[in-house]
Structures are given as structure tokens and as C-alpha cells.
Design brief:
CATH topology of the domain at 11-60 and 147-236 in chain A: Gyrase A, domain 2
CATH class of chain B: Mainly Beta
CATH superfamily of the domain at 11-60 and 147-236 in chain A: Probable tRNA modification gtpase trme, domain 1
Shape of chain A: globular
Order of helices and strands of chain B: EEEHEEEEEHEH
Helix content of chain B: 10-25%
Number of helices of chain B: 3
Strand order of the largest sheet of chain B: 1-2-3-9-8-5
Strand order of the largest sheet of chain A: 10-11-12-9-3-13
Largest interface: A-B, 20 and 19 residues
Number of helices of chain A: 9
CATH topology of chain B: OB fold (Dihydrolipoamide Acetyltransferase, E2P)
Helix content of chain A: 10-25%
CATH class of the domain at 11-60 and 147-236 in chain A: Alpha Beta
CATH architecture of the domain at 11-60 and 147-236 in chain A: 2-Layer Sandwich
Oligomer: heterodimer
Radius of gyration of chain A: 20 Å
Largest sheet of chain A: 6 strands, mixed
Shape of chain B: globular
CATH architecture of chain B: Beta Barrel
Distance between the termini of chain B: 29 Å
Radius of gyration of chain B: 13 Å
Order of helices and strands of chain A: HEEHEEHEEEHEEHEEEHEHHHEEEEEE
Strand content of chain A: 25-35%
Strand content of chain B: 35-45%
Number of strands of chain A: 19
Largest sheet of chain B: 6 strands, antiparallel
Distance between the termini of chain A: 46 Å
Chain lengths: 372, 124
């Protein structure tokens, strides 16, 4: 069993006291003490998110503002994502790449007219900020918004709850963001998330975090959910976890993230790893990220080997576990392109035994984003 | 009937030369929602400390070790369909398997109820 790591250097979010009061099990995650689950457990929290609405504290994630005269063009030197084409008030999922076409981080960029707002992974934020500051020196300035908390309200009832908390947010559509007052606090409300459900992410002043969280939890549809449910929800939704499903050794093309690279960026290039990435777009990548559905009940975890019928190793699981909505084990990972077709039979080597499974189309559950 | 505990959070309840083995309530609580249990086969000889079963929770796989050596004489088959019994009743319906104990002296090295409670307190 995983023992509690009493690392003195672990940071705490503005909701730390609330998590403990609610009986959360706190675990070290990306340098923070974070709630992995509350008293009802991961499965109950997961299912509540899919039927009602859950409140997640994701204040460990990095929030930063990037400013500069040509900030969009400048950021495009570090990502194949299309930033210049991003309308004001819109958010976009992009990746930062290295010279080999590998992914340094995945992030959400929002255009706030006179600056860009970035939300990056907790484990990557220090290195991302260093990269941005050094590569864009003289063109842009980066402001770390450590003074902000970040929440996610996710689930089919999220819109009804947000409509009561901040009526002006009713017209927001998926991947749009607006500065709004929530219970008097100046927030940035985005219709985004990491669960496959409709919902919002709310950037709030750290000093208002506890008060706001309390107000959300007073809403009848809302319960807290921890990182455990967040992980099973995003796996079912087929969404990548940085450090597991994508990292510096995987390219956006292999990861199935080619859609983040616009026609213009493909035509113009001019991003790190463009040679590798554009060649893979044109010729296909040797391996692909796929969904994997183990037959039976035994989960196949990250690093499980994937073999073909002949016992040859064709890939590896990068995320795997139990999907409460699916009602069984689910996984994703990379396999050679010849084995990546949905329906292809594969084996998963779990504790020395070859368990049957098949490649499955992602996501495992229908995403319910509100796009119009 | 006496019940003993290991530092790995297994319990063994002994009646004559038969021991019933499971994981403790502390263990199931730490593991969280259990979604699959892989049980040993009846007839399997186990040495003390040998891996006997696997618990899959939502988050991770964990091993269950034989608290003492012996032969597996019965397994709790219903757990394969209802692994949640381990969460609901770890020291009752959530038992894993029964062992014919090879050497009763191996029980002496295990903790009794009071010692285990103190041990768990030290972990919290």
C-alpha cells in the first residue's frame, strides 16, 4: 500500500483546510498535498459527476499571464497550436513541443485581448515558466498568478448551478471564457473541463477561495470530488494526462492531438519539432495512442505491455484502471499503427499472464460539451 | 478462535489447524473502492509471506501475502463477482481464503488485536 509521504516541502492549496474538514484523503501530487478522494470514495464521486455536478479543487495547476506586443506570434514559436487565430474570449487546448516533436506540456490558452491567460500542469509549471521567460525574453513578460485558486465544476447540473451563482455565464459555450463576478468575487469563468461532461473552470482570487467553495457546496446538486475521480473521469473521456499519456517522447501526431495544429500552422511550420511533426502528419506516425478495453474484470495499469496474438510486443499502456461509468476496466496506450484499428484483438500482460483485450475507439463515454 | 495480524494488514482467524485470511478494515479503507480480487487456487501451497492474492482498487493493485504457511483449502469465490464486500465487511464476508496451517508456531510472530491497533495508530 502507498504510504503517506510526509514531505515537508509539499505545498497546500487555499482549500486545504476545507479538504481536511470534509474528510479528504490527502496525497502528495505534483509537489502539493491534494485530495485524492473524500469519504464517499472515488466511484461514488465519479458517478455523481456524471449525473449531477462535482466541485474539484485544481488550484495546484499553474496560472500565468503572458503579455507582449506580438504575444500570439511569440507563443507560436513554442507551440504548433494556432494562437494568432484565437478570438478574444476563446480558450484553446495546445501543446508545447521540443525540437524532437515531443510534448513539453499541454495547456489551455485564453485570449483576453491585451494578454493571454495560460493554465498549465502543476508538475510542469516551473519548467514551463522558465522556458517561456527565456525563449520569449524581450518579446513577452510572464506573470505567475500564484494569487489565484482554480476550481472545476463539472457535470450535467453544472450549468444550472453556475446560472444561479453567476447568471451572466449562461451564454458561455464550450471553450469560451469571460471575466465574471461570482458571488462578488472577480473570477475568470471558462466553459471547459477534464471530465467529458459539461462544466466550468473558475479562476478565483485565493483569498475568496474558501468562501466561494462553501457557496458551491451549499448548492443541492454539488458534492466535492477528488483527484481519483478526476483521473477515472478523464480516462473515460479519452483525455490525456501529461506525464503518463503524453510526454517529451511522444509527439502530438502519435498522441492523436493533430487536431490542435491548424492548416496555417501545418503550412507555415515555425514551431519546435516542426520537421518531425509535419513529416508524421504527411506520412503517418509509426505508433498511435488508442483506447484499450481489457476483457474481463482485471485492470491493466500504466506500463502494462501490449502484445499481439503471436506474443510480440506491440505497445504499452500509459493510463489504465477502472471506469465506473463503463463498469469495467479501461485503458489507453500506444500501439504500432498496424494494430491501432478499433476492434483489433490484443493481449495485456498483467502479472505475467496474457489477458485478452481489444482496441477501442476513444472516448469510452460520450463527451457532453455544450457547443451551441 | 484467535485472530492475529500482520504488518502488511492481513488478518488470520484460527480455528484448530485452519486459518481464515483477509485484509483488515484499515487496509480496505486505505485502498478505497475495490474493483477486483484475484484469489489463489484451492490446493495451492503457500509459504509464510508469499503472495497469495491481488486486490485491485480504482487506484492501484496491491498484494495480499500469506500470514503463515499452509495449503489453500477454500477460497471466497463470491468476491470475484462482488469485490466490494471487502470494503463493506473486510473482517467478515470479505474474507479471501482458508489455509490448512502447516506450522502453528508461525502464528507466534504475528500481532494480536491490541498490538495491531497500536501499530495502526502509529501509522496514522
Amino acid at each position: 500500500m502507498a504510504g503517506a509521504n510526509k514531505d515537508q516541502t509539499l505545498k497546500r492549496t487555499p482549500l486545504d483546510a476545507l479538504h481536511r474538514e470534509l474528510g479528504a484523503r490527502m496525497v502528495p501530487f505534483a509537489g502539493y498535498e491534494m485530495p485524492v478522494q473524500y469519504t464517499e470514495g472515488i466511484i461514488a464521486e465519479h458517478l455523481h459527476t456524471r449525473s449531477e455536478a462535482s466541485f474539484f479543487d485544481v488550484s495546484h495547476m499553474g496560472q500565468a499571464i503572458l503579455r507582449g506586443g506580438d504575444v500570439a506570434a511569440a507563443l507560436e514559436t513554442l507551440t504548433p497550436g494556432d494562437i494568432q487565430d484565437l478570438p478574444v474570449g476563446k480558450s484553446r487546448y495546445v501543446v508545447l513541443t521540443n525540437e524532437d516533436g515531443g510534448i513539453i506540456d499541454d495547456l489551455i490558452v485564453t485570449n483576453h485581448a491585451n494578454h493571454l491567460h495560460l493554465v498549465v500542469n502543476a508538475a510542469c509549471k516551473d519548467s514551463d515558466y522558465e522556458l517561456l521567460a527565456s525563449k520569449l525574453e524581450g518579446r513577452c513578460t510572464l506573470e505567475d498568478r500564484k494569487d489565484r485558486a482554480l476550481f472545476a465544476l463539472q457535470g450535467p447540473k453544472a450549468a444550472a448551478v453556475m446560472g444561479r451563482m453567476a447568471p451572466a455565464c449562461r451564454h458561455l459555450l464550450f471553450m469560451t471564457t469571460e471575466p465574471l463576478k461570482v458571488a462578488g468575487a472577480p473570477c475568470l469563468v471558462s466553459r471547459t473541463g477534464y471530465t467529458g461532461e459539461d462544466g466550468y473552470e473558475i479562476s478565483a482570487p485565493a483569498e475568496d477561495a474558501e468562501h466561494l467553495a462553501g457557496l458551491f457546496l451549499e448548492e443541492p446538486e454539488v458534492k466535492m470530488a477528488g483527484l481519483g475521480a478526476r483521473d477515472s473521469l478523464r480516462m473515460e473521456a479519452g483525455l490525456c494526462l501529461y506525464g503518463s499519456d503524453i510526454d517529451e517522447t511522444t509527439t502530438p501526431v502519435e498522441a492523436g492531438l493533430t487536431w490542435t495544429i491548424s492548416k496555417r500552422r501545418r503550412a507555415e511550420g515555425g514551431f519546435p519539432g516542426a520537421g518531425v511533426i509535419l513529416r508524421q502528419i504527411n506520412e503517418g506516425a509509426k505508433r498511435k495512442r488508442v483506447g484499450i478495453r481489457p476483457k474481463g474484470k482485471i485492470p491493466a495499469r500504466a506500463h502494462t505491455q501490449v502484445t499481439d496474438a503471436g506474443g510480440n510486443i506491440i505497445g504499452e499502456v500509459t493510463s489504465g484502471g477502472y471506469g465506473p461509468t463503463v463498469g469495467g476496466p479501461i485503458a489507453m496506450g500506444y500501439v504500432g499503427k498496424d494494430h491501432a484499428e478499433p476492434g483489433a484483438k490484443i493481449n495485456l500482460i498483467v502479472r505475467g499472464k496474457a489477458l485478452p483485450g481489444r482496441i477501442e475507439k476513444l472516448p469510452f463515454v460520450v463527451r457532453r460539451y455544450v457547443t451551441r | 478462535m484467535t485472530t492475529k495480524y500482520t504488518s502488511e494488514h492481513e488478518w488470520i482467524s484460527v480455528e484448530g489447524d485452519v486459518g481464515t485470511v483477509g485484509v483488515t478494515d484499515f487496509a480496505q479503507h486505505q485502498l478505497g473502492d475495490i474493483v477486483f480480487v484475484e484469489l489463489p487456487e484451492a490446493g495451492k501451497p503457500l509459504n509464510k509471506g508469499e503472495q497469495a492474492a491481488v486486490i485491485e482498487s480504482v487506484k492501484a493493485a496491491s498484494e495480499v501475502y500469506a500470514p503463515v504457511g499452509g495449503e489453500v483449502i477454500e477460497v471466497n469465490q463470491p468476491l470475484e463477482d462482488e469485490p466490494g464486500k471487502v470494503n463493506d465487511d473486510a473482517i467478515g464476508e470479505g474474507w479471501f481464503f482458508k489455509l490448512k496451517i502447516a506450522d502453528a508456531q508461525e502464528l507466534d510472530g504475528l500481532m494480536d488485536d491490541g498490538a495491531y491497533k497500536d501499530y495502526v495508530k502509529g501509522l496514522e
